[in-house]
Design brief:
single chain; alpha/beta; Rossmann fold; two-stranded parallel ribbon
Length: 287
């Protein structure tokens, strides 16, 4: 039998690699945790919600400003395989960051299949450009902006890093001081043969344009490429593939898993101001 992708011959094999809920005894638990933590953040922290960065209703972002002015900024890009969730489930990432004097921006975007992955990438870039141009009005320092995202958000983080910011947006070519993709998808071809295909509708062109492991440009932004130590071998391979591609372009990255974390708990460090994730960002943002 001819493999669908690499060594995988059947969809069920790829689904086992890329559907992180399969291994959970309670697949709904991560969602409950994200919602509860997000609600706590919006209750306890100052915030400005649903700030428009583009013309459509989905093009909004939520800002959680630090207490002091001219604060460094972290922009978080949520996951959900480009077809689920929103910024509102991930307000909780601001909890640990705000305690460290970092302003947090959580961006929202439209979802597949109503829009394409190409359009989601465009919206992400638009949100980041808006942040660089406008965050000073909200107490943020546009010269100290880091970005990161989870799962599909890790993919969108990588797509942001290959953007021609100077040519296309009139911004500094490498405007971000650091980036962290968590459990990112950097080669999206295997998803074409998975349970996700009916919603994300990948074709050859979409895969070619949106597999950032194969289009890395020289970039001064340092990365921490990470994933959960308890995740599947494919998430580890995706991270390793991107790390190698990033280095081959002459760029700098660290490749380290978060021990014991699964696909959902890999971002729990944002909830703890003393976590390794928060400490890494503090160092890169010069807090």
């Amino acid at each position: 039998m001819r493999p669908l992708y690499r060594e995988f011959s059947e969809q069920s094999e790829l689904d086992a690699q890329y559907n992180p809920s399969i291994a959970l005894s309670d697949p709904a638990e991560p969602g409950r945790h994200f919602v509860a933590t997000a609600k706590r953040a919006r209750t306890e922290l100052p915030c400005m919600l649903d700030v428009a960065y583009g013309p459509t209703l989905d093009e909004t972002l939520d800002i959680f400003p630090a207490a002091a002015p001219n604060a460094p900024v972290f922009v978080f890009i949520h996951g959900g395989y480009w077809r689920a969730l929103s910024s509102k489930e991930f307000s909780g990432v601001a909890l640990g960051l705000q305690a460290n004097g970092i302003t947090t921006v959580v961006i929202n975007y439209a979802l597949c299949p109503r829009v394409t992955i190409d359009e989601i990438v465009r919206q992400t870039r638009s949100a980041l450009a808006w942040t660089l141009r406008n965050i000073q009005q909200y107490g943020g320092d546009p010269s100290r902006v880091a970005i990161g995202g989870h799962s599909a958000g890790g993919h969108l983080t990588a797509m942001a890093l290959q953007t021609e910011w100077a040519e296309d947006y009139g911004l500094p070519q490498d405007p971000f001081v650091a980036a962290i993709p968590f459990s990112g998808l950097f080669d999206i071809e295997p998803l074409r043969y998975s349970y996700l295909q009916p919603q994300i509708q990948l074709d050859d062109g979409t895969i070619r344009r949106n597999s950032p492991a194969f289009s890395v440009r020289p970039c001064k932004t340092p990365l921490w490429i990470t994933w959960g130590g308890a995740e599947t071998s494919e998430f580890a391979r995706q991270a390793q593939l991107y790390h190698q591609a990033w280095g081959n372009a002459g760029n700098v990255s660290e490749l380290r898993a978060i021990p014991g974390a699964n696909h959902f708990t890999v971002i729990s460090g944002f909830e703890n101001s003393d976590s390794e994730v928060c400490k890494w960002l503090k160092e890169k943002l010069n807090v």
